[in-house]
Design a protein that fits this description.
Helix content of chain B: 25-40%
Bound molecules: adenosine-5'-diphosphate, magnesium ion
Number of strands of chain B: 10
CATH topology of one domain in chain B: Rossmann fold
Radius of gyration of chain A: 34 Å
Order of helices and strands of chain A: HHEHHEEEEEHHEEEEHHEHEHHHHH
Largest sheet of chain A: 6 strands, mixed, barrel
Shape of chain B: globular
Number of helices of chain A: 14
Largest interface: A-B, 25 and 30 residues
Oligomer: heterodimer
Order of helices and strands of chain B: HEEEHEEHEHHHEHEHEEH
CATH architecture of one domain in chain B: 3-Layer(aba) Sandwich
């Protein structure tokens, strides 16, 4: 029989016993719905995490340090000292010219004292390039990002803002609201007290607020105490440098401003032999245009003679975790569909008993075994398609409801709403296809049983 | 349609030949010999009545000729096809193209309309839709049922249902019409209408007819040959001149 005829007869037969067939179809739908619900939850969570991590800038950043430092830290990098290079400005420019590199900027990060409303505090200052603005740590931020890369402005990390305003939370008490915390601080001024490195050969330029000059024993550097006034423009809730560990910044300043301060850092002491106008950096952050290009960039920088570190390896193990989660969700989802397949077998076997005579008639007037088999197959397939599509809609709706409900909860907790729910096209197509395949497999036994039916027996009883 | 010389030529050929045909059913210890060593020839174009009391093996014999069942031993050859040697697939093709069947209980499919029932064999033969519809109309015209085309079998009288079944048996233009007590569920008047149609198929379409019946009167009225079975054995086989007017009497020399 031809396919249009088959499907027409199949649909007709399904309509003949509507109740039983729709119950079976509902069974398939529930199976598909649970499968879709489970897997779209998995997909959604994965997409959410990937989105977050990508936004955090951690995935497309390679941190470069000098091999000399790395050796001291017991790194397993190539120990050949001939290949190691000084991490200076020419090196930075070279990195910036590598393919797929968006920018390379020195990591400026120093511990310093500062004055705020007459009190002395101490914290780690860290420089941020303008590109960090898209970092999701600044999504829920109070105030605004730096107005320019050289503006004398500062963003406070929440915990430091608490310290400055004397609102350190007592454990157990509810955390102060970032907005309440930021209101009295925004627009106020803090004064950094830091040590500036300066080439001795040049007469030190004296800014208005210059301090005393100090010379490091017998070198070309002098160290001068300086002050820099900064306006507080923002307080950020999350920690944009959560992966930095010990040297986490709690006060952020614009990148170019930080560079112009020439703060004396540890590298300067070690690189005394390397004199000149060009600064030497402790580490450089290289931002790669696309997370998938990180490996290539890392290799290129290693060839230049530097040590590198990227978080991409960490992301790989996260992907592994998601694969396992996926498999689990998939298995649970499929279980319901398996149960539904028993329903299909049952329905079709019942249909054979009921339609014994009809099968006998069809054979008597010339239907082949294959015709009868195909007809039952078509019925199973039609139930699969119908159940699959209805189940897909169900599953999608369940997901929407869960997402909606959770977001109401999140909003109450004043957490920005999230999309942790996604039904990608391959999941939609795959779920319906899977339902059809499961239905056809369930139809195998009933179909061949119907095909083998003896027409003489089937027609004997009135 | 078929012309007289073709019918004449067909009469010379053997349509059905059975040799020592047996169909035995095993029921535990006992063996039921439903058909027990029947040998007979049916010439093309003949109208044969298969007579016998209930349980004498008439239906079993007919099912063997129809290729619905396989012999336990012996052979049945229809138009040079040894049915015992055909595969299941080939038997289905044989039933589809060579045989048309009607039954006592009509055996229409209740979920389909009359037209759909009639064209069902054409679906198995993979005839395309447009042609199917016109062939079904033609067949329904021939049995005078065109007006009931969109009805379901349950909405028809017994006689109308049997007409529909005849149209279905006719649609693939089979060489052989096998009828198992076609008037068994009909009153005598309606039965005669059906029998007239069957005789028309026999005479004007050149179909060989084998009709099972236990009504001797009906057989005498239409059949050219009466074969009697008892306990699965052939007990009587005689040519006969049908009594019905306008029928085979004139056709016979
Ligand atoms: N499938 C079967 N299994 C067992 N016995 C059967 C079967 N079909 C027919 N018979 C037996 O074979 C004999 C002949 O049956 P059947 O051909 O139907 O007779 P008829 O059509 O002449 O009434 C009967 O005794 C019947 O009980
Ligand atoms: Mg019978």
């Amino acid at each position: 029989m031809k396919i249009p005829d088959l499907s027409e007869l199949a649909v007709r037969n399904l309509r003949e016993s509507v109740l039983r067939n729709s119950l079976t179809t509902v069974g398939i739908s529930v199976g598909v719905a649970s499968l879709v619900a489970m897997l779209s939850l998995g997909t959604g969570l994965q997409q959410m995490f990937t989105r977050r991590l990508e936004k955090s800038g951690l995935f497309n950043t390679v941190v470069v340090s000098s091999r000399r430092d790395a050796r001291g830290m017991g790194s397993d990098n190539d120990p050949n000292p001939a290949e190691s290079r000084v991490l200076d400005e020419p090196a930075r420019r070279e990195m910036e010219k590598l393919p797929n590199v968006a920018e390379a900027y020195p990591d400026i990060r120093f511990r310093t004292d500062l004055h705020f409303e007459g009190k002395l505090h101490s914290t780690v200052v860290s420089a941020l390039p303008q590109s960090a603005k898209s970092n999701d740590a600044f999504d829920g931020m109070q105030g605004s990002f730096f107005s320019s890369d050289t503006a004398p402005e500062a963003i406070l990390q929440k915990s430091f803002a608490e310290e400055l305003s004397g609102m350190k939370p007592v454990p157990g008490d509810p955390e102060p609201n970032t907005a309440d915390l930021a209101r009295p601080l925004l627009g106020k001024e803090i004064t950094l007290l830091y040590a500036q490195r300066e080439a001795a050969a040049q007469p030190p330029l004296r800014p208005s607020d210059a301090g005393s000059s100090d010379s490091v024993a017998g070198t070309e550097y002098s160290v001068i105490s300086r002050e820099q006034k900064l306006k507080i423009v923002g307080v950020c809730d999350l920690d944009p440098e959560s992966m930095r560990g010990m040297m986490r910044g709690r006060l952020f300043v614009p990148q170019k401003l930080a560079e112009s301060l020439h703060v004396m850092g540890a590298a300067d002491l070690r690189e005394l032999s390397h004199a000149g106008d060009e600064p030497v950096y402790g580490s450089i952050s290289v931002r790669v245009k696309d997370p998938s290009k990180v490996n290539g960039v890392e290799d290129a920088i290693k060839k230049m003679g530097f040590s590198t570190f990227s978080i991409l390896d960490a992301s790989r193990s996260l992907q592994q975790v998601f694969k396992v989660l996926f498999a689990f969700l998939g298995i649970f989802g499929s279980l319901a569909l398996t149960v539904a397949s028993i329903g299909i077998v049952n329905t079709l076997v019942m249909a054979i008993l009921e339609r014994r005579r009809e099968i006998g008639i069809m054979k008597a007037i010339g239907a082949s075994d294959a015709d009868v088999k195909k007809l039952f197959f078509a019925e199973a397939g039609a139930m699969g398609i119908l159940g699959g599509i209805v189940g897909l809609v169900f599953g999608w709706a369940i997901g929407q409801i869960i997402n909606f409900g959770t977001n109401i909860y999140l909003r109450r907790q004043s957490i920005p709403p999230e999309h942790f729910w996604a039904v990608p096209w391959w999941l939609a197509v795959g779920a319906v296809l899977f339902a059809v395949i499961v239905s056809l497999v369930s139809g195998l036994y009933p179909a061949s049983r119907a095909a083998r039916l003896d027409p003489v027996q089937a027609l004997r009883y009135e | 349609m078929t012309t007289a010389p073709t019918i004449y030529a067909a009469r010379e050929t053997v349509a059905i030949r059975s040799e020592n045909l047996c169909r035995h059913y095993r029921m535990g210890e006992t063996v039921i010999r439903a058909v027990d060593g029947v040998s007979l020839d049916v010439r093309a174009g003949e109208f044969v009545a298969l007579l016998g009391s209930s349980g004498s093996g008439k239906s079993s014999m007919l099912n063997l000729i129809a290729g619905l069942d396989r012999p336990t031993s012996g052979s049945v050859v229809v138009r040079e096809r040894d049915l015992a040697k055909l595969s299941r697939e080939e038997l289905a093709k044989y039933r589809l193209h060579v045989v048309g069947m009607v039954f006592q209980s009509f055996n229409l499919i209740p979920s389909m309309t009359v037209a759909e029932n009639v064209e069902l064999p054409l679906r198995f033969a993979e005839v395309e839709r447009g042609r199917r519809e016109s062939l079904a109309l033609e067949a329904l015209d021939r049995v005078g049922l065109r007006a009931r085309i969109a009805h379901r079998p349950t909405e028809l009288s017994g006689g109308e249902q049997q007409r529909a079944a005849l149209a279905r048996a006719l649609i693939n233009r089979p060489q052989l019409l096998l009828a198992d007590e076609p008037t068994g569920n009909l009153d005598s008047h309606t039965g005669i209408e059906i029998m007239d149609l069957i005789r028309e198929f026999n005479q004007h379409l050149g179909m060989t007819v084998v009709m099972v019946t236990h009504e001797r009167a009906l057989a005498e009225r239409y059949a050219q040959r009466m074969i009697s079975l008892a306990d699965g054995r052939l007990v009587d086989d005689r040519p006969h001149t049908p009594h019905a007017p306008g029928g085979a009497r004139e056709a016979r020399p």
